[in-house]
């Protein structure tokens, strides 16, 4: 039997890693699959009153997100969003275990950064992704609870399904920035 469902082994029994371009494509596919899974499960947890009240509301006790709070959630939510979503991303993308370690480490770091509440100059995640700290801060604000469900990589589903809430960064007199909704 193969070592892992998505791995190929050579004659000596060692796992054969795909080329770097193939691994990059697998990571991109994994990102899109994870975003799709997390958007629909996250949105459903907001729309289903029972799930919101008894499961997802634990995460939203954090009105002002902070880094470690990214993973402050009910065990069922962790199982549905993170574990099951990660497994589906892994299987659909065809990653090897080694590529998956890189992907999941990146996803966790990105998720923690999205909840850190800090807009730092030169932050690579803010430069590469529209779904970033400010984007997710809006979701945790009272007026943003029904918007910006997308996580952790791209705002594709929010834009396509009308749940995207634009924002602007406003410099605070005491220093730093604040994410504010852009009202129509």
Task: Write out the strand line-up for the largest beta sheet, numbering strands in chain order.
Answer: 1-2
Shape: globular
Average pLDDT metric: 86
Question: What percent of residues are in strands?
Answer: 5-15%
Helix/strand/pairing category:
mainly alpha
Order of helices and strands: EEHHHHHHHEE
Taking the alpha carbons of the first and last residues, their distance comes to 58 Å
Alpha plus pi helix count: 7
CA-based gyration radius: 18 Å
What this model shows, in words?
This protein has 184 residues and is mainly α. It is built from 7 helices and 4 strands, in the order ββαααααααββ. The chain has a two-stranded antiparallel ribbon. It has a two-stranded antiparallel ribbon with strand order 3-4. Helix 1 packs antiparallel against helix 3 (75-93). The longest helix is centred in the N-terminal third of the chain and has 28 residues, at 20-47. The chain is globular and about 65 Å long. The N and C termini lie far apart (58 Å).
């Amino acid at each position: 039997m193969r070592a892992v469902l998505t791995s190929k082994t050579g004659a000596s029994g060692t796992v054969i890693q795909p080329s770097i371009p193939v691994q990059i494509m697998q990571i991109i596919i994994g990102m899109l699959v994870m975003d799709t899974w997390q958007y629909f499960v996250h949105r459903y947890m907001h729309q289903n009153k029972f799930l919101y009240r008894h499961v997802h509301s634990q995460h939203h006790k954090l009105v002002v997100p902070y880094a470690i709070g990214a993973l402050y959630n009910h065990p069922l939510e962790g199982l549905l969003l993170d574990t099951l979503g990660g497994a589906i991303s892994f299987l659909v993308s065809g990653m090897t275990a080694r590529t998956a370690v890189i992907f999941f480490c990146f996803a966790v770091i990105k998720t923690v950064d999205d909840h850190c509440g800090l807009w730092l100059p030169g932050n690579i995640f803010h430069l590469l992704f529209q779904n970033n700290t400010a984007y997710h801060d809006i979701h945790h604000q009272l007026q943003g609870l029904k918007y910006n469900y997308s996580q952790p990589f791209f705002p594709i589903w929010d834009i396509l399904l009308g749940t995207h809430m634009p924002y602007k960064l406003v410099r605070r007199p005491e220093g730093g920035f604040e994410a504010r909704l852009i009202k129509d």
